[in-house]
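Bench notes, afternoon.
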Amino acid sequence: MLYDQALLTMAYLEGYQSTGNESFAQTAREILTYVLRDMTSPDGGFYSAEDADSEGEEGTFYVWTVAEIKKILGEEDGALFTKTFNIKDDGNFKDEASGKSTGTNIPHLTAEIPADQRDKIEALRQKLFDVREKRIHPQKDDKILTDWNGLMIAAFARAGQVLDEPKYTAAAKKAADYVLTTLTDKDGRLLKRSRLGKAGLTAHLEDYAFVVWGLLDLYEATFDTKYLAEAIRLNDLMIKHFKDDKDGGFYMTADDAEKLLVRTKKLYGGAIPSGNAVAILNLTRLNRMTADPDYEKEALATVKAFSAEVDKTPSAFPVVLVALDFIFGPSNEIVIAGKLDADDTKAMLAAVRKPFLPNKVLIFRPDDDPATITKLAPYTKTQASKGGKATAYVCRNFTCELPTTDIMKMLESLGKK
């Protein structure tokens, strides 16, 4: 499922930022490699899912016997691969109905590959991959769903920042542009899905909330104010058409959508976060980015609407807890001023993106065209670079410390050494 790939990628990226464990970064890269290779349309949108079964059997495309592996890799290399990826003679893949082993294996790691074996193992894995590509592939669900694409845009945009990989940012941009054109109607409203270039159906709350999430991350990856402006526009449409004016929070369907017996409103998400949970986080981020108090007001009204539910079982609402931690702080607004293509600016941005700093927003104020961001975030008007050097303004609740051109001083202000 596309949403699994997106949410897992974000989790591994945050794990990497928190621990510095390179295996987490590598796992994120491998997930994104799969999505780019098998789950991305020529137009840039991301497909929904791939089946687990092919040729009428579960897992056929993915599993291996020891004999197959050794025939392809040879006895010695085959033994190395089977040991590394926990391949068993009698198989590790069980039939779901009977619980008995099928005699086949799902290659998987239970320990990190030693550094001196990585190149060798990767070469062996590539040999098996090339053989697997000749098998009958599972069927693909090639619908492009707006909400799930919002999640994947966020994942690619974050990966572009954390891993300093332009191709990930480019994938996020291409998908976002697809959503903002093909999955947007003539009135600027989002549509629910597309297939083979044909889009339709009225969008739901999750479509707006998840796309805004992706656009906010994409702005922080590119500093192209087009994406921040679109995030603001779509968020404002969400407020206009989905808000419960009486009790707070947001309905699942728009006020002008098909009339239902009951217009529902919920916070619990399940496999993916709910639209209301993500809306709280988006509204908080937009408040910190633009200093518009109305966004914080809407966020708090939504929290209040569901507060009893969260208080009863807080662990069921992790994204809401993340948003609450952001709301009540401490949190940071970081404005970096300078020239985006300058080496000192790149170094300062890399330093901000490397550590795990969840409760922050990142704004860039370009020396050559400051109006592009000051229109959206007026408080940045006075936050110019000093002496032509990349300059950081670290602020809390829009109260800023003295500007600095020193990366270490910036990190100290953020509580990072």
